[in-house]
Amino acid sequence: MMRLELVKRPQRSMLFSALSPFIAFGLTIVAGAIMFALLGVNPLSAFRIYFIEPISQVWQLHELAIKAAPLILIAVGLSVCFKANIWNIGAEGQFILGAIVGSIIPVFFPQFEGPLVLPLMLLFGMVGGAAYAAIPALLKTRFGTNEILTSLMLVYVAQLFLDWLVRGPWRDPQGHGFPQTIQFNDSAILPELMPDAGRANWGFVFALVAAVAIWILMSRMLKGFEVRVLGSSPRAGRFAGFGLNRMVFFAFLLSGALAGLAGISEVSGAIGQLQPVISPGYGFTAIIVAFLGRLNPLGIVAAGLVLALTYLGGEAVQSALGISDKVARVFQGMLLFFVLGCDTLIHYRIRLIGLAAPKLEAAPKLKEAR
Amino acid sequence: MDITVNILLTIATAATPLLIAAIGELVVERSGVLNLGVEGMMIMGAVGGFGAGYLTGSPWIGLLAAVAMGAVFSLLFAVMTLSLATNQVATGLSLTLLGLGLSGMMGTSFVGQPGERLPNLDIPGLTSIPVVGRLLFGQDPIFYISIALTAAVMWFLFKTRTGLTLRSIGDSHTSAHALGIKVIRYRYLSVIFGGACAGLAGGHLSLVYTPQWVENMTAGRGWIALALVVFASWRPWRVLAGAYIFGAVWIGQLHAQAFGIPVPSQLLSSLPYLATVVVLVLISRNKRLTMMNTPASLGQPFVPDR
């Protein structure tokens, strides 16, 4: 009988801090190979179809960028929340509300054209996402209500609200009864970056800009310091005069606005109209992106591309091998599991010991001073 | 009268999975662990229960499979958070995400297949008593398990020494550890118990409530169960009351949709989720009640020093 024992490192290991996402990715590949083998598929050819073929041509890289953009946008916002120990897990709902509020202009004023349309839509989208995120923030600061549960419940409400809009008041009267709004006019469509090469649109640029902006905020500005202090030690934050309630609002509004921007960018870029379902769970997958990227905006860009590839790979194995595209969700879930597990190595050494083994040395004190 | 009985029966059926999942999570949280993976364990129980029932033709084997599936799946969470001291919120979330994906994959071939349903209790002479007969003696077996489970957990937590120990761990794992209590072992067992309960709750959905497999068929019930624990301020009998209130809301909105009340069906469908938010706000306004009952070391990782 063996058991694990954690031994606290004197300081965090820089080595494992850098290595952990890669170890996690490697372990995911191993677990994935076992899974494919269990499904009766040759793992090597499955991996080629899953991870290589979807990005072997230029137009496919554009598809990757389309999937990565919302993931990165949402995840950089969430990274600020998580760093501050604030748990917004309702980004999926904020994404939807951003898409809805941003679509007000093209749906109600289809004849409104010109260069002003898009900036207004994007602004509306950010306001919509931020406003929806303000609800759990308000409930948390005002009544102390757990933000995990409220933000999550509001996802279901947002999905049903969108469903009602596109089947009811916002449905295209000329749409042959299909549950969708009118096609947005050309001024309301997010332009493609390189129309000759592929479909990638400005949403990906927004994602990169947001990542750089949040990186500057977190590493170069007082507000970022405040986030980190309040996240690691609320007591120390109070002594420094940082308000926890203000931080809750800041984190929720920021992440909500970015999720809303992702929502309206997706609708105006990749889809071109509102439909009952506009997201394959971007808001939840972004949580994985945030952790895989070490809550660091630049890491998140890389993680967003990896997770975008899991979506494309899922579609690829479904059409090539007839495996459910849910395989993408499984890969994503495993990846997050392994990342969290590997992160333990940053703070602890792991020792396997026999239950009967005598105590070998004086163990260092493990308790954290929090 | 018959209609009233029928409505009460459907409320009990809707409340049962919420009650079981919430009672399991209550024990987990009383031991100081926050497992946000209820939704994932529940959906794994649902797919495991349906699959085993469908493949063997026996809903009883399905029931056992659901419980086992939930327990095994929760072990993943236990190893991560208890042995590797990972962040409980993030690990619970990933358990839910993984469960939703894995169940979808495992259930691909079950979609649209007719499932096995657990038979309702039928005691000659008793079940046919007017009005109360069917309420007391004519429900599905998991209903009776849920009531017995609630009573047992209530007795265990508040009347036994082990229950007291468990609660003390939830309130201060360092003190409990200093007293020589095996904190990690208690927590392992609690988490697995919670997983088994969530699995059973999922099994109820796919073996009783709607005996078929539909992707994401838990529809947020795992999250509502988590909210119920907070709502109940970590007391079993309040979980029971809360589960039935939510069962009533769930059934009420379904009936309202069926009667064609001139309100968008989507608004009615969102009522259980909105009700959850409202209830959470109401309960958290009472700070003293919450502070008094929240297990003090809830959600904090614990690494024993030797």
From TrEMBL, chain B:
Keywords: Cell membrane, Membrane, Transmembrane, Transmembrane helix. It is a multi-pass membrane protein. It comes from the Bacteria. It is found in: Cell membrane. InterPro entries: ABC_transp_permease. GO terms for molecular function: transmembrane transporter activity. The chain crosses the membrane at residues 6-28, 33-54, 60-82, 89-111, 141-158, 188-210, 216-234, 241-261, 267-283. GO terms for cellular component: plasma membrane. This is Inner-membrane translocator. It comes from Mesorhizobium amorphae CCNWGS0123.
